[in-house]
Amino acid sequence: MRLKIRKKMQYGFGPLIAAMVLPFFCVQPAMADWVADFTPPKTSDAKILIDLPDDLDVITLTQLGVELDGIDITSLLSLDGVDFIYKPLQALEGNEHTLKLVTLNPDGTSEVRQQWTFTIADDGTGSAGNVSDLNESTPEIEMAERLLRSAYFRADTLTEFSRRVVQQNIGHATNRSTLSGSGDINTGFAAGKWTVDGHANYLVQSDVDFAQTERTIDLGEYDVNADYQGDTVVGGFSLGHHDTGLETLLVSDFYRRGVSARLGTSDSRVEAQGFAFGTESVSGAADLTGLNSTENRLKGVSLAVKPFSTDVDALKLTGTYYDGLGEGSGIGLSDLDSAASGSGWGVGLEKSFGQNRTRLKAQYAHALFDQDGDNGDAPKDSSDAVSFLIEHGLFEEAPIVWDDALDIDVGFGYDRVDTFFESLANPGLVSDRDAYSAYTNLYWGALSANLYALHETNNVDDFANVPTDRLESIDFGLNYAFDQQTGSTEWLGTPYIFMNSYLASLGRVKTPVGYDGGDTDNLSSSITLGGGANYDDWYWSASHSYSRFDDYTNVSSDTVNNLTGFNVGWIVSDRLDVNGGTQFGVFEDLDTNKNSFSTNLYLGATAELVPDKVDLNIDYNLNLANGSGDSSDSHIVNSEVEWTFLQPRTNRPGLALALRGSMEEFNGNTDSAQNETEYQAYMVLRVKAPFSLSY
Amino acid sequence: MVAEANVTSVTVTPQRANVNVKGASALSLTWNVTRFEPTAPTTVPVSSTNAVLQINGSTVANLGGTLLKQSSLAAAQSETLRFSEVLSISPALARKIAEAPTGSVLISRTFTDTQTTGLARLSVFAGTGQGGALSINRIDLRFDNDARTDVIAQGDTRRAIAEINFRSSGLLKGEWRIIDPTASLGSARGRILQVVRQQVVSSGQGRTRIVSPALPTAKNGLYLLTFSVENADGIAELPVLRYFVLEGTTNRPEDNLTTLSPGNGVRVSQDTVFAWENVPGALAYQVEIFNPGHSKVVSGKVVSAKDLKLKLSAFSLDNLTSGESYDWRLRAFDKEGRVIGSSPRQLIFMP
If you ran DSSP here, which 8-state letter would residue A18 be given? Predict the structure, then answer.
């Protein structure tokens, strides 16, 4: 008997259904010769349908896979009879797309059974004229050429006029009427071998006391990136906020406004980069390049070379140089030790063996750094840093254990950073450490675990009058994601668990004669256990952390902290989401026997009261702090009701009217002077204007 | 005979203090001045012009400013006046202290009630952070896409990251605090988004990274976000990030999704499991594989949000060339098709 699935019945598709269905039918072997039909989607967000023969048997169905633009979409296919249907997660972009129908062979191999291309026009419509069966000789270059001549501009903007209609006890004397807003703009084009992309945002705030840069309208952050992709040479430049991508002792995680240029060979044999950045974190248009101030600017170069080959194990040598001066402060940054001048050079070596199985990375850097600037009294320090890391995968071929691959990596590192080693382009670097570390990572199916051990001493510059301490620590972490539960444990949904823990001992290695600055001998420990589960329309998660600090010198108090958290979210319907969370913490000072308690509760809801017309957001927050750390309890309610009377569409602004406000009630408990109720409410006229142009 | 009150004693807490070898330090001191009035009632000023830093008996620097309080005493009455101050030790002074002979560094203050004087001193030692309470000396606050001023599409998932440099060890007590658009035009307090209690340790100087929960993006308007932390005496002002939420489609989250496996650089096969942490509101997760440094997807797989892991199909692996390394990342999509999560790129190797 041949299984025939009735058309128009929708099923989720996957091995699970096949496994459930198969035992009830006697199924004949798959048909060898059949052809599927494909009709391209009429619009960019329409469903994609592959019309399979009506008499296709179920075994053949379960042996098929579908790939769209390189992505295996089989898991999200649904069945309309025996036709495959896929609803794209996002509207397809306006260019050519490739769809493949693949047969999965029992031996684990696969072969492309049929393949189609289709085009989505820039206006979002599909084109049947471009549907074709691709073969090996399809001139894909034509497609590439079409893609290379494109441009786009997209902007999302929101401007709102708000007027305070009621208030009590609010802390700031703000303007009663304000204009505020923002926009996010993306643009770019591709021409020939050049690709240029730009991004910027801006903020509007008529009450300049609340404006980021004390200007009513000002630029936030922006970046422009131009890339040239030649046959033998690649290059480009960046302007605005960006990161060089360098991860060295001298330059790392350095995201600032500035300029950089890069040039190299297309096989990555040679990569050179020059850069100049402001050292402060800035926004606004006043210093558009970030380089206006000579007092807050650094510049540098890097050169990476693969001298012998460009294969995966190739030796890579990197050299870096920088110099500059300035403050490492600004928006989002507060630094006690920020005014400085510095320069440095460094070299790095990367090499792997056995097709990336063993990886070696070594770095050396030399820095000149004056921690209070050239005009300060502190001397300019000359210092060095060394970093060495070797990693090795234990298995050349990962063994299969219970159907899952088992991978174990081990690594060993050594870092020696002089006491006064600093770099303006790596401001968060921890110096004054001589550290040996070892770690192992285990990956087995959905289980991942890691173990990290550290032995570290300080006073690297060996000051005779400064003690030397030693830190020894061990960290262990574990994560596991279970399969979606079925049968009697279906109520568990798709659960997951995690655990993080560490133990750290800090002690004294050497105490100078006559030193009376206190001893060092303490033990820190911490463990966090957590888990959660996901369901079709809701989720929950919970965690508990226990931390303990024992100071055997009694300089500081011994303490214990417990913190428990719970979060839950529920998609009640297409028009209503609710979520909430709570944290409860207990801090115990074991020396003074004083305890403090903190409780936080959050409840929130988002509702579409009238579809496409009226939306409601409301949340309630409770913060309680009592015990020895007693402070005011607070109850805060935030809410907004928005009536959209003209829905925004691309290139057509929309209008909405909103009533929003908040109420904050503080209860001082024993201190009634702290009792206070604040509230404020605003009427808001909102203009939402998305723009999009492309060709 | 003129009535004469007496400064009977001056003490300071603590009696010994550590300054950091490198960088500026802040010393919190409390001076306790006890006066006794033997005869008639008087009101006199009790003051000290500055503190003095001495090395081997020689004055190296004057620190702090004038401390002044009025003292009113009846006959035969005594009282203790308490003066608290925070002294800043410059990097240059810290270096001098570090290079001075052990035990030779003192900070003193002389208090006078215009008639008598009294002096107290504390010993100062150099260290690299140990022996003292936890102190925060740098806070670097940014969003998970590195930006510090951002415009976020409504409903997108975005987190903030606090990179904190500290000295010594202890329990870091912090709070993510946020001011919502409903209140930002008049409230300076905000609400607690999450309490953070994290035990941190270092041999002197340390660094830790604290990731915020998903930031609220349900309401249009301006949000202000900060990470307030105790033991940040040296930080003059807590950094504040601002982000504006609007309805839009052009902005995309970056690097806000945590993957659990495989490890970086792993040899990929059909048995390799890609696993990740849950993103609330996700409809589907998509693993995407790229040639290193490129943005065009060469292979990948999408699964529904019920799954927190997947294995690549044989035909997905067929898109990869043996002996080549690739970048991969994971993205989460919501029911509207918006990307609400994205992981940093990591390396895999096709054997």
Answer: H
